[in-house]
Amino acid sequence: MADTATPNLIRRADYAPPAFLIDTVALEFDLVPERTVVRNTMRVRRNPDASRAAHLELMGEQLEFVSAAIDGKPFPNAHPHEHGLLLDQVPDSFELTLTSICNPAENTTLSGLYVSSGNFFTQCEAEGFRRITYFLDRPDVMASFTVTLRASKADYPVLLSNGNLLEQGELPDGRHFARWEDPFRKPSYLFALVAGKLVALEERVKTGSGKEKLLQVWVEPHDLDKTRHAMDSLIHSIRWDEQRFGLELDLDRFMIVAVSDFNMGAMENKGLNIFNTKYVLANPETATDTDFSNIEAVVGHEYFHNWTGNRVTCRDWFQLSLKEGLTVFRDQEFSADMAGGATDEAARATKRIEDVRVLRQMQFAEDAGPMAHPVRPESYVEINNFYTMTVYEKGSEVVRMYQTLFGRDGFRNGLDLYFKRHDGQAVTCDDFRHALADANGRDLAQFERWYSQAGTPRVSVRTRYDAAQQRYSVTLRQGYGDAVPAARETQKGPLLIPFAIGLIGKDGRDLPLQLDGEAKSSESTTRVLEFTQTEQTFTFVNVGQEPLPSLLRNFSAPVIVEYDYTGEQLAFLLAHDSDPFNRWEAGQRLATRELLALAARAATGAALQFDDSVVAAFARVLTDETLSPAFRELALMLPSEAYLAEQMAESNPAAVHAARQFVRKRLANALRDDWLKVYEQHRTPGAYETTPEAAGHRALKNLALSYLTELDDSADAVRLAAAQYETANNMTDRAAALSALLNAAAPQGGSPEAQHALDDFYRRFEKEPLVIDKWFALQATQRGGARHPVIDTVRKLMTHPAFNLKNPNRARSLIFSFCAANPAQFHAADGSGYAFWAEQVIALDALNPQVAARLARSLELWRRFTPALRDSMRAALEKVAAQVKSRDVREIVEKALA
Q1: Distance of alpha carbon 586 from its chain centroid, rounded?
Q2: Nearest-CA neighbor of 193 among 423, 12, 28, 317?
Q3: Alpha carbon distance 11, 318 (integer Å)
Q4: CA angle in degrees (0–180, nearest 5) for 261-147-106
């Protein structure tokens, strides 16, 4: 990594330590929206571990240079340029003072220092700090920061920064100041400041060692009543990290601040986490069960970064998964423990299923496209484009495999050693792997390939039963199938794959497991096989009957399993498998197989038929009261249209939509009485509760409602949905009812009930931006029909007074929802969806390249679609490539077209 401006392509192999180090930073801000003056005083010295440089090169973007001084004297050899500041002939150790000016009011990129709703906020990860002041803006330069903020007291009564508040006071001319000190060295990407008219919910808690800490959740005054859940989630996170990993809050205070204009979900700045309001604000009237769950997870994620990301950080941005993959794993474990503790396997499995659904639908697709890259990328053009599902979600699965191999205690021992070795350092994924290996006495050299190989591995399985010898052999073979070029180029050999397996007898019970060569059978009925070769056979002995294998239990590795189960076998697993994840997986495989066969017929215009045995399998799950409502809801939810289209040799969204709608109608009509019974049984009268149990009842009830509105005669279901809308005492039920009404009426272009609910919803919540985001999203994702395309609704909503393209949440709620979550309508045969996409990417690129780049990825898999759709997509991509200017978007579209 060079100290200078970002070149066209950054390579991991080119990393070099910085020529200079910065030990301390004292920042002074005079905050004025259009002209903020920043004075930056740094203690700088040459790095003894780097080659000697002739000059010091600092990064800087969109800054007005004012002055430079070294050791208190003006320094004439400072030369500002477009990407930074060059300082010639500097001494080996010196104090450098720089003064510069930035314009937060005009910063629509929301990177660096910007203004939102009249308040100041920052976002510095990955390279936003260089928009605030000239600096060595790279993660391996760690310094201690002192920050002084000065501003109008009337306009900005609250002044916050990282760490602990040292002093505050009055200044002349109605201004005031606050001085903050962060006692822990950190890279510049973890810097934060906030200034504005905010109020806080406060709590004081004691940590495990008895130290008192101040917790604050800062919001705009009208949102204070929506902060309780975020505060509770923070307290739960603190307690969990102490109990599970022995990690204690290390600052006197911990602050969360909510802002409505934010590119990401949240940011883990040391002690001053800045959050998108979407992941802070919640009460029963405005937030769904999913919102409550997401807030708990994201609050946990950012708090857990305090150790896995802040106390130990990344050496360079190629190591991003070092902090993100590890912390996603930690927030997933936290959420599972909050739902079911360490012992309720069914509740934990529900969380596991939800996480794997996201991984397979989004990350597996990423692996199959032009943006495919390893968990630790080898190169990039724009680092903002590598905050990807691969780095986060696949990175989390890589961390989970350590725990699968070593168990909870072994994983904890490895994490303890990691902190003992590297606290206060900027390190690499290899450093983490070495700590886990050394703590557990294992050689993990082969495991490194999980970090360096792109693509989704495929494991094909063959089985053989020898009745005479009572031996059951399982042969595993690993490879990558038809991997994309980016994936093929990185493959170096077989992976170490922890492959969990169980054997199920004819009575539906697990069989004891004894591998050939073992003295006795294991007490556990699940065995983790360490699969390390391209092909490897494992033989179980004393198997008295031919079993049915339960493969990759709990999704023990991020791979695709290829095994030719019959429909009857999948139905048997759906009914009997003791592993909750594989029970769900059997139903998904069964549904996917049927749906893909139907889509193939729909593509040719052939008549559609649905096997009665599959209907019977779903009926058993629907009526099985021994299963939790949350699990039944997940098991009865059909695979998404996007996921199904990706499984086709040539994606055909219209055929997939036709097939899926046919199956939904078939299940609705065949199980009508059961759906009605379930709807009535799982009502949740009384006050709203956020418990996982109550949420599970609501989820199953609302799934039943969505199926009932598919009935051939849906008049009764529409009345049921309308009544639920009118009487709902929570947003989960109200939004579900509105969705049911919209989709029931979509093919006809609407209904009086749907329009009444839409209008009422807007009137009720027009002062609640996050709820109006739902209003936009529900309309963008409604089913639509040939005579009533959703694109017409979306274009009309673009002109609505409440729509604002500059706000990322609002843009995502309408534009992203349509392009990413309504495939049948977005991929319309006339290409209207692609034309709309191109317009919006170009418009967003001029405002906010990070948001534009995320939207640009909607077409990255264009080569996998039918020829007519491919031609339209390519034309849209070429239009964008010809007009956009940012590195962010250019990297995406150029890779897609390459």
Answers
A1: 26
A2: 28
A3: 9
A4: 35
Residue from 369, 365, 371, 340 nearest 353 by CA: 340
Region of 196 (left: φ > 0; alpha: ψ -120 to 50; beta: rest) is left
What is the Cα–Cα distance from 477 to 536, expressed in whole angstroms? 7
What is the distance between the alpha carbons of residues 131 and 83, in angstroms, rounded to a whole number?
Answer: 10
Burial class of residue 598 (count of CB atoms within 10 Å of its CB; 0-12, 13-18, 19+): buried
Amino acid residing at 889? V
> Angle CA(700)–CA(596)–CA(635) in degrees, nearest 5?
20
Mean pLDDT computed over 869-877: 98
Structure tokens at 705: 């409602």
What residues are labeled active site?
302
Rounded to 5 degrees, φ, ψ at 726 are -70, -35
Average pLDDT value for residue range 24-51: 98
Beta strands in 565-702 (DSSP E): none
Tell me: pLDDT of 3 over 80: no
pLDDT at 1: 28
| 661 CB neighbour count, 10 Å cutoff | 18
Contact 631, 584 (CB under 8 A): yes
- Write out the two tokens for 691: 């418990």
Residue in the block written with tokens 């002093």: 167
Chain segment 402-417, per-residue pLDDT in tens = 999 999 999 999 999 9
Residue with tokens 């094909």, as numbered in its chain: 460
Binned at pLDDT 50, 70 and 90, residue 7 comes out as low
Taking the C-alpha atoms of residue 678 and residue 680, their distance in angstroms, rounded to an integer, is 5
- Looking at residue 847, its amino acid is L
User: Is pTM, for the whole model, over 0.90?
Assistant: yes
Q: Distance between CA 828 and CA 830 in Å, rounded?
A: 5
Phi, psi for residue 268 in degrees, rounded to 5:
-90, 25
